[in-house]
Amino acid sequence: MKKAMSDVLVRSIQAPAKGRLEFVDEKCSGLTLRVSQSGVKAWALRYRPKGKVRVQRLSLGRFPAVSLAEARKLAVQRKLEVAGGADPQARVRQSLVADRESVTVNSVLDLFMKDYVRVKTPKSAVVTKSYLASVRSDWGHKRAADVTREFIKSYLERKADSAPVASNRIRSKLIQAFGWAVDEGLLSSSPAMRLPKYGKEVSRDRVIADGELLELWQAFGSLHKAMASAFRLLALTGQRPGEVIQLRWEEVFDLDNDHARIELGASRTKNGRRHTIPLTPMARAIIEDARKELTDSEFVFPSFRNPGECYDVRSFARAIKRIIKELPTTSETARRLKANPPRPHDLRRTVITNLSRLGVSREVRKHVINHQSSDRDVLAVYDRYEWFEEKKYALSLWDGHLTSVITKTHLREIAA
């Protein structure tokens, strides 16, 4: 839609509940502002290179880092280049393709994230970025042409010794990234093609006992406040770690009444189905506490190091490992935690197991955690009942049980 844009107007535009919005500047032809569901506002120039039919889209930066005036100035500069026969969007890629021998792994991963992941599979962007982070830091500086199959094999084998699951996930991302780079002409061949999995994955059955929950609940307090709160919300709701860690304010509703809830759109869930999570008193208190710390971040639990971003899932795995390692071995509970340390995802299994013990039916448990139904009939396709009251009752039972596990001192800590 066309708009007579101003900085005030751009600042006032709210993120859409679903999908994204795009506004066209009436003053500067071709200049657009795209507002995503996450609240990101990005400038771009739409133009048609000379002699071509397809319209191109060139990124000009994000608002407010790039103001309206700066975006208009950049758009005019790029349009002059286009009028002279240039194609700004193709320039970076062409320079890399023309000089493939100098292309680094990081430059390949940059383009892979920008042109493929964030466009084709945006839901996986945070996880993909997280898994590729170690590649970037360890050997991202290497020329992509120098990376051999044997080099990646050795890297993944070493990784598998200490982190078998991470090794396998990194492998799949590298196969995808290098394969994409070949398709785009950035590389002549993929060094990751058909690499096997080197990590031996074992299905986990770890359920955290009540005494261990109390020990962990207390230990979470040693973490940065946002991370501690996210861990506690995980323990209260049983949702997937990524769904809680990446929680946005726009997904939280009615905190001040009994209909308090989190609403996740289809793009934010693993099974691609929208999901409503009722908030119990303790969960509400955690989010209300986070609201008191409100910053400019769109995330409820912003990263301590990068306030404009959320934590990545792997940082939570490292954090729980660290706090367990630091526990004093004075109690049998602490020794059990050290002997068999839980992972963030084990909190989800713990909640669902305890809901079963509390008498919650399998059908309701499945809806609490948004587990994909095995049904493939027409009813499964058309049944859109939210199960809100049933989920609320189930999570209230768990809230009450967890309340009985932790002390009143820690309850006051949450609401303080």
Describe this structure in words.
- This protein is an alpha+beta fold and 416 residues long.
- Helices cover 51% and strands 9% of the residues.
- It has a five-stranded mixed sheet with strand order 1-2-3-4-5, with helices on one face. A three-stranded antiparallel sheet has the order 6-7-8.
- Strand 1 (2-3), helix 1 (7-12) and strand 2 (20-25) form a beta-alpha-beta unit.
- Helix 4 packs antiparallel against helix 5, helix 9 (225-237) runs antiparallel to helix 11 (281-292) and helix 9 runs parallel beside helix 14.
- Residues 409-416 have low confidence and may be disordered.
Main beta sheet: 5 strands, mixed
Strand content: 5-15%
Order of strands in the sheet with most strands:
1-2-3-4-5
Low-confidence stretches: 409-416
How far apart lie the N and C ends?
A: 45 Å
Task: Provide a count of the helices.
Answer: 18
Overall average residue pLDDT = 86
Q: Helix- and strand-based class?
A: alpha+beta
Total E-strand runs: 8
Helix share bin: 40-55%
